[in-house]
TrEMBL record:
<dbReference type="Pfam" id="PF00578">
    <property type="entry name" value="AhpC-TSA"/>
</dbReference>
<dbReference type="InterPro" id="IPR000866">
    <property type="entry name" value="AhpC/TSA"/>
</dbReference>
<keyword id="KW-0575">Peroxidase</keyword>
<feature type="active site" description="Cysteine sulfenic acid (-SOH) intermediate; for peroxidase activity">
    <location>
        <position position="48"/>
    </location>
</feature>
<keyword id="KW-0049">Antioxidant</keyword>
<dbReference type="GO" id="GO:0004601">
    <property type="term" value="F:peroxidase activity"/>
</dbReference>
<dbReference type="InterPro" id="IPR013766">
    <property type="entry name" value="Thioredoxin_domain"/>
</dbReference>
<dbReference type="InterPro" id="IPR024706">
    <property type="entry name" value="Peroxiredoxin_AhpC-typ"/>
</dbReference>
<keyword id="KW-0560">Oxidoreductase</keyword>
<dbReference type="InterPro" id="IPR036249">
    <property type="entry name" value="Thioredoxin-like_sf"/>
</dbReference>
<feature type="domain" description="Thioredoxin">
    <location>
        <begin position="6"/>
        <end position="156"/>
    </location>
</feature>
<dbReference type="InterPro" id="IPR050455">
    <property type="entry name" value="Tpx_Peroxidase_subfamily"/>
</dbReference>
<protein>
    <submittedName>
        <fullName>Peroxiredoxin</fullName>
    </submittedName>
</protein>
<keyword id="KW-0676">Redox-active center</keyword>
Length: 156
């Protein structure tokens, strides 16, 4: 399985998305920090819930390593907002790649067209959009948070 169009050291395309609070999210908002783009196929599913909950539960570890985690899917903002409330998120931004539908996921090569969702992928970038680390997972697979945190720490 190799979806991601970019390799370590390459720059991802610039993006402008919106989070669950209808705030604009771009890389330049995180100047001097690394950003974990944690793509999950759909809100309201168990594996995606667990993936986002692990990011929230480890938020201080991300901060300690100068990294901002973002949970990204093709769900619309109102769904992201309701889901964030249901999950009780206090720190994690849930970002919508809804319209144009899956545009960022498509540019990255991780959009699964026949299903209308992104793949499950973690991409760690610096504030310039250069890939520091990336890993793709099978859609039903929960990413190993310890592996993610190690990659974050190794690139802090």
């Amino acid at each position: 399985m190799k979806f991601l169009k970019f390799d370590k050291g390459e720059k991802i395309p610039e993006f402008k998305l919106v989070d669950q609070n209808e705030e604009e999210v771009t890389l330049d908002k995180f100047e001097g920090k690394n950003v974990l783009l944690s793509f999950h196929p759909l809100a309201w599913t168990s594996v995606c819930r667990n993936q986002m909950q692990e990011l929230e539960d480890n938020y201080q570890e991300f901060e300690k390593n100068n990294t901002v985690p973002l949970g990204i899917s093709v769900d619309p903002v109102p769904s992201k907002s309701a889901w964030a409330d249901t999950l009780g998120l206090e720190n994690l931004k849930l970002v919508s790649d809804f319209w144009p539908h899956g545009e960022l996921a498509t540019k990255l090569g991780i959009f699964i067209k026949k299903k209308g969702i992104s793949g499950r992928v973690n991409i760690l970038v610096n504030d310039q959009g250069e890939i520091l680390w990336a890993k793709e997972y099978e859609v039903p697979e929960l990413p190993d948070i310890d592996e993610v945190l190690k990659a974050v720490a190794d690139n802090a």
